[in-house]
Write a structure and sequence with these properties.
single chain, 7-stranded antiparallel sheet
Length: 223
């Protein structure tokens, strides 16, 4: 009789207690907070790396370009004039910090120019960025060295926001701050120093650049 009475009584389904529900909610909140922190941390790191890359990539390209030009310097000859820091190229609004003849020119089948080209470096005021700090480091390229009426060099922007550009020249004994075009030889090494202007508010400052390039090709001064 007792067994039949127990079988006739309705069974109550198992349910979560209030404590178990609160505990599950707290665990879910902790997991979501941790996932949110990881997501925003990764997003912040990505933005920081993008900013660092955007600052360092132009600098690395500019340094590589200048090094390639300086490594290919040729002494005065039939197609190469004297190098010097006391020159001004046609079409420039600012005097050149340095003018060289180098073998960094690319030979193409659709152009009649050789690998020797004239390169000048100068700091010029920006024309399309009013209020920007510093000046633009411009690389001027002249490929046609035999033209009777020299054209203005093709100007390429290497770096923006530059405060100072300094070339130093080692003559085998001393370092010199300038190199006259009247000299018949070229230095044995050139040191390049670039300092940037103070950045705009909210922007990180660029680290100054300094590198040394040996000049392998030299003229023989013996007569």
């Amino acid at each position: 009789m007792n067994l039949k009475r127990n079988q006739l009584q309705p069974s109550h389904p198992a349910a979560f207690t209030l404590l178990e529900v609160l505990l599950a909610v707290m665990i879910s909140a902790v997991v979501l907070a941790a996932a949110n922190a990881v997501f925003f941390g990764a997003l912040h790191m990505r933005l920081h790396m993008a900013e660092v890359t955007s600052q360092t990539l132009p600098t690395d390209l500019a340094v590589a370009t200048i090094k390639r030009d300086l490594l290919g310097i040729v002494p005065p000859g039939d197609l190469a004039g004297p190098m010097g820091s006391d020159t001004s190229a046609a079409g420039m609004t600012q005097p050149a910090a340095l003018e060289i003849f180098t073998t960094s020119g690319a030979i193409r089948s659709d152009e009649s120019w050789g690998e020797v080209q004239r390169i000048d470096y100068s700091l010029q005021d920006p024309t399309n960025r009013t209020g920007s700090p510093g000046r633009d480091l411009i690389r001027g390229v002249t490929r046609n060295l035999l033209a009777s009426n020299p054209d203005a060099p093709d100007q390429q922007l290497l770096l923006s926001g530059v405060d100072t550009l300094q070339f130093s020249y080692y003559d085998g004994t001393n370092w010199n701050d300038s190199w006259s075009q009247s000299l018949s030889n070229i230095p044995t090494a050139i040191k390049v120093s670039i300092e940037f202007a103070a950045p705009a508010p909210g922007k990180s400052a660029n680290v100054p650049i300094e590198f040394l390039v040996p000049v392998v090709s030299q003229t023989n001064n013996a007569n």
